[in-house]
Fold each of these.
Amino acid sequence: MTGTAETSAGAGRVRDFHQILIWPLQVMVADGKAESARHWRQLTENGGSAVWRELDDEFTADPRDFQERHYREFVAFLPHVQRFLYGERAHGSAGYGESPIRVFRRSDIRKARLWTRPGASPFELEIVHCDLYFFYDVDVVILAVEVRGADLDLVTCQDVMHRFGRAYPGGWTPDGEGANCMARVEWIDAAGAVVSVSDYERREKYLASVCSHQVATIASHWDYVLRPMVMNQSEEKGALRYRQLEYYRMPQMAYLALDNPRAVSRVDQMRLAFAGPPGGDAPLAQAFLGDFESKHAYDRFWDPGREGWTNTRVLCCAHAVVAIGDANSALFTDPERGFLSQFRHQLFYVALIAHFHRAALLMLSDRLVTAMSRLDIRDRDTVSRFRRDVRLNHEIFLRFTHRYYFSEVSDQALLRDLFRMLNGHLGTGKVYAELREEIHDMSHYLETDMLRRQAVTLLRLTVVTLFSLIGNITTSFLGMNLFNHADLSTLERTGIFLSVFFPAAALTMYAIMKSQRLYLFLDSVADPKVGLLRKADALIDVWRDKPHVNR
């Protein structure tokens, strides 16, 4: 790489283009809600949502209706991942049960009309899927939107990858347009009507949100897609509320079937790998991209110098998984048995699991921060709530670890290696280790505090017991036969009993109140190195307003 312009003119056009946006969000839970989160119920109860409908799984009642594509998808994963994705129907002994994933889809938005820049000609992409993924017992929902286009030029595809999946603008150009965003996005329904339009150019809207709520609001067309969910800082009423977990740039997957993928320049492959904007020069510094192939390219099926070879290259970074291949090869483009089917299903689930893992860990970390921010050690109510929050988060973390957290998802080379590569770029293992250490520290603090409180309680009880010996000896005097109380009347015996009971109870309560100071007095009495004067002084300290310290 020289850093000068490199052209991909010989690559031809992109005959088939798919982009899948995978946007994790945190579902906000009100205090006092059930611990086992079933947030999808908000879309099904009380009449449900008008646009979101829960998807039935592919496992039909009649096996003759079960498609081979679904079978290939199922067997691609290891058994524990199969149970996570699809559940398990077992007879006899208890099995895994239903999958903890619930998927909802809306079908009212059919197309996206896009303008990459002001004054540019619009073009349309088909909305293939628009889904919400909910996960049992985890306050995370993932929006997955798949769009498709045909016969596009490479520059247009690069612009879509760079600009489309933006929740809000990162800034504005001197002309007032959102920086690095689409100039305009329109959602179009089945009748061809525009149902929602982007508003990246409304600078005052985004500034007001950050100024008033310290939270960036999202663009109007993405807000429309997520309805009836509403942002947490919004004043609108909504039982299902969310907030962002990560960067405003949505993670994505992209599939490009080109006339000649071997002619795509190294610089353009870098842009595709990082979902960067089109242009002439390398997107980043030469030194930074010196190890591009080893870190960001999966080349098991990529050999440009080999004739008759199905050249397929998978590029990967933390926010993008991109596949490029030959549009003339059925092995790459077949939607049922080819790589396209594998990309849209197996590879999609690999990316979904990887981003879900990171989102769930960030959600738990956020809950720990919230628990700490509410803690005031001078307020017993906040201390009790802190203990409850830590125990609850520890339980959720354990359930997440054993139910959802996988180090391996498949024995198929592509899926196995891509999952490892994506996790490495996301840093999921490091986030998991840090979160586990934080939860361990909090749990250790609770255990230490509990032991300290138990020690103080035992100390007080020991002191009270020691001093109550005097009362026990005294009151036991009544049980001796020195006095003949048996001949007294019931009223007289009751009076004697109460005359002993109330002073003894008062003395016990008083001993509890002074137990800390009485302990110091007993400690000084037991210490042979302490003189009589200091022992007497320790006794007097029991009744001093301000006892002497280290006297």
Amino acid sequence: MIDAVEWLEHLYDLKHGRRWVTLVGSGWGDSGKGAVESSISDHFDCFLRVSGGANTGRTRYIMTPDGEKEFIFHLIPCGWADNKESFIGDWVLMDLDRFSTEINELQSTLGRLPNAPLFISRKAPIYLPYHSMLEAYLEMRKGADAVGTTKRGIAPMIAGIDLRIGPEIGHLEFPDTLRQWVKTFYECFEVNFKVLVEWQKCQADLAESSGRAPTEIYDLKEYSPDMVTEHLLAHFENIRGFITDIDSLLLERAKANVPTLIGMTQGYGLTRKGTYPYSSTTQTSAQAGAFCSCIPMEYFGPVILVDKLDPTRVGWGPFPTGMWDRQEAELFPKEHPELFSALKECNPVARQEFLDEYRQLINSDDNPDEVVVAKYIQVLLNELGATTKRGREPGWPDLYVNACAAQSNGADVIALTRIDWLSGIKLNLKFATEYRLNGNVCRAPDFPSPIERLEQVQVGYEDIHVDLRNTELYGSTELPAVFDEIFNLIRLHTGVPVGMVSTSPKAKEGKIFRDFRSEVRK
């Protein structure tokens, strides 16, 4: 094992000393990028967020006057909390309500605002309530084929820019022009919004007659273009000092090779390469760092692929290695909040009794019931969506998806997170190593598409027997020998070595940096 400084130097050597490092997710999002980022953040001077929106969340532990505390970042680059210069780039979808709330929450958690600059690009798109209304309309129109979005209006925000009717942050500096942009967007979809409201009224009547929860009804008078514009301008007074042209500043940092960490959102499986149309995001690949920041590729250095040993998924769409019914998994925390330490209703005694019982069920059979394993993982690791708090469906590790992500992103190393779920567990751990379609083996990075083909995939597994009944992994920096077998299997099927291992989500504990140089494929 080596320290983080030496580990990063080995990474830089792979890319001719370039110190712009990109973090990307390997699978279905929620991979633990925040834990990886926090473990190396001390060694970077600059943080860059280039894509995504308020629908995503990155959970990190940050230092406060009262010690480390968990904080969920949505729009603010995580490094700003570490007093590092931070940038919000051209393709970050800015929800000003969410941003203002996040600023206030961070200030409350830290006891102050960070002592470092934060820059927001004038080109970043602005969220309008019409984006969520349009998304709700589209979901309504799709009926049974709706994709189960977070209702944050992410896809309509992207579409608004592509259709040339979406306002940008810079328009806040020109109130009259902003008002016209907002008016144009509203008028383009006013007919659709009225149809949506009438449908919502019908749904509300049905809900009332059946005793169900009331249905939200948009009041279009409250969302007139003038009112929306004034609401945006009120936020402008609070964020005026953050807005600037960032291209020249970033290019200066790139030319000077300032150590910079670029954090992409979500994961490979939630891009258009993955489970389209069950995804709403901007660009999330390593190459998008250059595309979204307008910085030449030559300045970018290593790529770290973040992978969680318990891949999870929320929302709708295929999950080839999933263990549980998705809807049941999403509802489980609502039905049993007492089991989740991340929820205020948690009952520690009930939680421990549940974990003890399910651990015993798993250990009594080398091939335990998958739903038992999934429930155990969800409760133990508090697998809840960072933004929605929906329960995540756990799955078996998927090395085919990882191989596609590694090859498509040009990954240099894999950072493996949340291996600690295996503490005290004995079972045959299943790794998906092969996808087949119509009897034919799929070839990475060819990810099955369209979505109808992915739903037909047959998954081939390889098992590794794990017996850690007397081993506690949480926070550990030493690993049992079985992990050598696991790392070798991962490298064999992805072509990328495991360079870092995290046994705890906290910043200052449970981080193992491996000297991976002998394992790099030449």
Amino acid sequence: MSALREAALTSKAWPFEEARKLAARYKGKAPEKGYVLFETGYGPSGLPHIGTFGEVARTTMIRRAFEAISDIPTRLICFSDDLDGMRKVPDNVPDPEALREHLQRPLTSVPDPFGTHASFGDHNNAMLRRFLDTFGFEYEFISATEFYRSGKFDAVLLRAAERYDDVMKVMLKSLREERQQTYSIFLPIHPETGRVLYVPMKHVDGAKGEITFDDEDGREWTLPVTGGRVKLQWKPDFGARWAALDVDFEMYGKDHSTNTAIYDRICEILGGRKPEHYVYELFLDENGEKISKSKGNGLTIDEWLTYASTESLSYYMFLKPRTAKRLSWDVIPKAVDEYHQQLQAYPRQSIDQQLANPVWHIHGGNPPASGMVVSFSLLLNLASVAQAQDKATLWGFIRRYAPQAAPETHPDLDQAAGFAVRYFRDFVAPTLSFRAPAPEEAAALEALAGTLRQIAASGQVPAAYAGQFDSLSEELFMSVVRDTGKAHGFESLRDWFKVLYEVLLGASQGPRWGSFIALYGVQETVALIDKALAGELAGQG
């Protein structure tokens, strides 16, 4: 057994814990179908959001962890429930009123409001696939419309008709009495209007595989349950899909957790084996509300990728899946910096530590080297003081700070510099609010500028620090800032740093000052302090 596999078999990283449950499911032997099947479901009622991405990303992480501990082949299916009727018109589409006449029709029968695809369902499926392809996911896409209409679901649908009463017993226990009177697991698709009908069944013929019902106008119809003429309600559909595909693993959000027993039991009634599950906490917007496809609240995948790399989003998805997460703009810089910190730590770690490192799971065990010699948060501060309009401005400072770095040799840093300028312009600049220093604060700032001015003029370590530092380093600059604050009565250095942030950067928090001075430049920092003392910064923002 390889050292990697041995370590993976005991790793406490959550993907490995889930992978071991799957391995135990088959006791090391391949299932009859020849592979372990992972599934992730998607309801294309609106534009895809980051929660959808997170589900596929996390499932992929478990899949890769499974492949590290087992030689059994795997597949990942992304299943779109696009035969579902459009129950309400989304808020975030062009000309929503034009869709109103298509309510209750399957999403793949609703015209595409964007005018780019054959249907609204096809449009949203294409959006989903484009997003997933951006991240390089390896998956197979299945459309519910094709799955039903092609006959691939027929065997399980006939079994559902045959065992109708058993499945109904499971469902009725979960429904209010009023709903029980009209509920059916089958939703006929009207032969004339094409609408998905929520009507009670007059008769279900298990032997023939047919249902009889009255439509909304009181006309009686009899339809076969096969060939896409009928679809299942969403809860029975969950379990029936597991049985039809022989799914081994599916994760879903906490809002589904109360239905797990229903899904499992229906799967078993229809001849399947219930899969392994993983329930994750929901994603919240900046107001703490659940993000919704139809509302369009929270960040979209495209919005995240406007300001940060794909890998930073994958990193954010790895962290504590069973803890609710806010998806708002302010989480992006921290995610970027932490991702690169983990990349930088990876080569120095033991195998056990590497398997617990998020970057192992993000990159399938082969993470790249990080070229981020400057953190994203520091790039944001640099963009602020330099009033940068493009990344070229930032590179002028970066090259002086790290002469070995260049856009060609450090593409991740180059990309981050462009993101930083964009993020600063859109989210940081509108919030900046500089204040004038109080007299005692001004005295400390004058002293700091004086020491830095001496350093800039001599190019040498000040005599007071001789023996402690051999060069003009970040550590020297940090010591100068700290000592200046202490010498001017700041008992809490946090208070002193806050003065620097508010007066010089127009923010309540900011970078490590040693790193900032080293990157921005000693003379430039002196000039910045002089501007603040002259009142040229206060009131800006």
Amino acid sequence: MVDCLIGQGVTHAFGVPGESYLAVLDGLHARQDQIRFITCRQEGGAAFMAEAHGKLTGRPGVCMVTRGPGATNASIGVHTAFQDSTPMVLLVGDVASDCRDREAFQEVDYSSFFGPSTKGFAKRVERIDDADRIPEYVARAFATAMNGRPGPVVLVLPEDMLTRMTSASPLARVEPVQAWSDPGALRTLRELLLASRQPLVIAGGGGWTPQAAQALQRFAENWQLPVGNAFRFQDTFDNHHLLYAGDVGIGLNPALAARVKASDLIIAIGPRLGEMTTGSYTLIEAPRPKQKLVHIHASAEELNRVFQADLAINATMNAAARSLEVLAAPLSVPWQAWTAAANADYLANLQPQSLPGDIDMPALIGLVQRHLPADAVLTNGAGNFASWLHRFYRHHGLAKGFKTQLAPTVGAMGYGVPAGIAAAITTGRVAFTIAGDGDFLMNGQELATAVQHGAKSIIVLLNNGMYGTIRMHQEKQFPRHESGSRLNNPDFAALARAYGYAGVRISRTAQFEAELLAALARPEGTVIEVTLDPEVITTRGTLSAITQGALKKTL
């Protein structure tokens, strides 16, 4: 099993050890100079790390867990990989074959739990019962995880199978298959562009490489097209480019939302066009959008599944972008003012608003922008806190050669801390995480993993004493009725120090820059706790403003 993983190019495996796959752990010991096992503290954190590794490398991140509770704990990372279109392989140690189907200790039917046949969230679930076929199953898992729409595959490993002798040898490294755009469809796309007056590109989804992002940029430049990035794929197109229109996701710039609706041609390259990117299917209406829609996606099954496109093109991102960059453009286009206005709207949205309290969040993100290297990896989980980073940080991203954003489009809390640690381990680059107080406590124990494996991340922890997003929705729907969203938190700075990180607390904007520079300079990781006024709940207003708006709407 371990030799087969090495044959597929695996350099890291993330997991929590279990007695059901002791033989694999022993195999890892024998190959520790070739593959590094990262011992994590909880399977959810391990699965998030594997998913982050898959996003960063484009090859399946590997997670190893034991049966039952281990597998179910890891399911959050598998679900994230599924909705984020990230290649991943989950290896689950299982009960011995002679105990199966008796509700043995920690036994789970993994096909029913994860499987696509039950509308689960893995692309494939298989059990390896024959040690001679391990190479076949492993190669197929990697091919399935990477081909078409990338995603997770689950391989179940009965513990007695793992101890059987075999003469099998690893198969050759599997590479993803490239699906090229149909030439006829490209001609139709050109005709649609020539007939358009207000086109808009939305780029994102899985499967992007620096080469594909660079080809996308050349396509946009040739045709002078405004480009927006899909929800939490903000590094797909350079945010500093004059053609950039902003991110199409949660907390969407109202001007960009209006532009999506007003567009007469949307070219969606890579994203599924899910609920967050389409504004709950209102900006782009399902099943038949008001705009003409060209949908380019790596999975034929995704095309025309939710939206009936005027033109559907089944192509992988590398192939699609390279086809588009050579699409002959006219000498001039009639939408240059439209494109310039889209970029102006984006730049205007970077202007901060007045906020209560002693912490100026846009200023903090500005300092992060100034001092982090361009290739830094920025991570976050889910919560109101993430909107500050999404709105005010500008990614150079893939077009400059680096993937710089790790964020869960599935909206899973607790993702940012383990993803940052995985980024530090995988790339050796600066890893910066922004977390909320509720978000941090879901996987904060993985700081111990970072310290054990020599990884350094910088975590800015916004502590407002509540689940901010839930409180925001409560203020909108049930004004002044707080219920279940308040938090009584520990001393986060002291907690960080207990794990072996540096831990500091600030309460004023002026304190932040020195602490960020110190964090960048010191060898160990750092948690900078920022005490935030509970009123500072959203980039679009305060709790009071939200409440007043809700009351006015009710009246």
